[in-house]
Amino acid sequence: MPWTASDFSLADFYFSDTDSPLVPPPEYLQWRRETAWATALYEPVLCDPAAPVNHLKRGDTRQRVINMTSYGYLGLVRHPTVVAAAKQALDDYGTGACGSPILSGKSLLHETLEQRLAALTGREAVLIFNSGFGGALGTAAGLMRKGDVALVDARAHISLVDGIKVGGARVTFFDHNDAASLDRVLTSTAGTRRLIFVDGLYSMDGDMADLPRLLEVAESHRVGLMVDEAHSILCCGPTGGGVIEHFGVRDRVGLQYGTFSKGFSAAGGFAASSRDVIEYLRFYANPYGFTCALPPAVVAGLVAALDVMEAEPEHRQRLWDNATYFRGALQAMGVNTGTSTSYIVPIVVGDRALLYELGNTLRDRGLFVTPVDYPTVPLDQARFRASVTALHSRADLDAALQLLEDVFVPVMRQRGLLRSR
After folding, report:
1. How far apart are CA 316 and CA 75, in angstroms?
2. 20 to 30 Å CA-CA from 368: which of 45, 47, 106, 229?
């Protein structure tokens, strides 16, 4: 009998007993072959720019789909001001920076972006990375050392965990968004050098870090906090300063990290903190000094994105209006949206085999949502993650909701997996 996608997960093949690291576990390769119908939902090929309506390459055809997967939340990926600035920089500076920032890769554009981000976050200094993941990893690794303890929210991004491990520190998790759990692990690790790591907006759950309560506990133990605002910078807070600005706790957070691939619709990341912390990271966050700087065209587009959001804050309001509408409509159908309060909306299935069956049916019917499986989320929380953007029209959202009502809801109701309304 053929395997189903849910018989195993990536967690089952992490360790291998083959003779060489260059020989993957044969069981893994067999699993991938036998479950190709399911795993084909990953790494989809888009035929056009990320937009509310896209075309996916499926075999030899192009399929029109409602895109609820891309996370250019503010819809800036093709904003004419942003595109024009990137084109001009391409003419002025060429295709690449041709050096790390430490050596020769930093231009006037990079310096301008640093200054603008410092103003956005209210920090003294900023360090720009050419990768969102690499920058988070490098920031954590640049700060943490052997003998240190990192206190990490159980659902924080893996880039932080990887960076802490690279730095040699011990990772201790506390329950997601649970101040009492944080207090317990802080008490149990007293006497060590420590730092707390949380996300501003959790990428799989769509809920904000409970910064007021977490900071109260952190401050009672005199331990600092780093907030990863990958999914919240430019989108949350009155001026886009992130969840930190939303809660008004800027002066109580030691380091703020953000990426450019979400709200900014570009690539890269940045760390914002005191001048002293940034000067230290400049030479100890290796993904900054040992890799090429962001291409100038990307940097110019990022500066222009800041200009656009200062002049046109209505993009942010439309994002939140769309998110409230979409999430509310799902909940009215009895769909489990978890703890989401934002434009990241989980559509919880809870049954791993059913996740892939529904994923293929929804894709066939024209809804582009990607499955999120264990170990990325808990075994009983397998889900689709829907990303709402400012560019989605009500017609786009209604079309997606209609497909979910026609395809998803009846199956979930039959299985007894819908929430009572």
Report:
1. 10
2. 229
